[in-house]
User: Fold ABC transporter permease from Actinocatenispora rupis.
Amino acid sequence: MTAAVDTRVVRRRLGPGRRIRLAFWVGPVLLLAVWALGSAFGVISPAILTAPWDVLTAFRDQWVEHDLLGNVLASLARAGLGLAFGALAGTVLAVVSGLSRWGESLIDGPIQIKRSVPTLALIPLFIAWFGIGQEMKVVTIALISMIPIYVNTHNGLRGIDGRYAELAETLAIGRGEFVRHVVLPGALPGFLLGLRFAVTSSLLGLVVVEQYNATSGVGHMMTLAEQYGQTDVLVVGLVIYGVFGFLADATVRLTERKVLTWRRTLDG
Assistant:
C-alpha cells in the first residue's frame, strides 16, 4: 500500500507531461551517443555504418549542391496526403460500423479481411489501376494508414460504457447530441492511438512507394545514392525518415496530452 501511495505522489509531483518528455528523448539521445562513440573508437566500421559527422557532411552537400529540401517536401506531401485520406476514411468507416449494426455487418468483415492482406503486396495491382505516378503512392499510403485508425477508433466506440446510453435515455438527450458529446469524445483516445500507429505505417509505406519510379523525394535520393554507392547519402535518407517518424509521433503525443486532459482529471 505504501509503495502505491508513494508512486502516486511521485507522479503527481513530476507531472505526466514532464515525465513523458524526458522518457521520449532519452532513447534517441542514447542511440546517437552509442553511434558516435562506436564510430569514434572504430567499433562501428564505416563500411557498415557511416559516422555521424560524415552523415552531417553528406547532408550539407545534399542541401547545398542538390535539391534536398525539395525531396523532403515531396516526401512530406506524399505522406501527408496519404495519411489525411487514410485517417478520414478510417474514421468515417469506424463511426458507421461502430454506431450501426448494419454498418458493422457491411464494413467490419471486409476490413478484417484486408488486415490479413499486406497492403504492400497490392502495389502491383495498384500500379495496374492507377499507374506508377503520384496517385498510386498516395493510395498505398492511405490504405496502410486507414487500418490502424479504423481498428482503434472502432474499439474505442465499442468500449464506451453502456450506462452513458442509459443516462442519455433518462435525460431525453437526442441522438445527435449523444453522439457529439458522449460517443465521439469517448472514441477520441482510440482514434489518437490509431493515429500514432498510422503515422508509423504511412512512413513505412512511403519508404517503399518512393522506390517505384519516383522523380523526387527522399526515396528517390536514396535510390540514386544506391546506384552510385554513396552509403553516407543512404544514411542521410534513413535519418530523415527517422526524424519524420520521431517528430510526427511527438506531435500526436502532444496533441493527446492537450485534448485528453479530462481523462487525467477523472483519473485523479
Observations:
- The radius of gyration is 23 Å.
- Residues 1-18 have pLDDT under 50 and may be disordered.
- The CA atoms of residues 111 and 147 lie 7 Å apart.
- Residues 175-209 form the longest helix (35 residues).
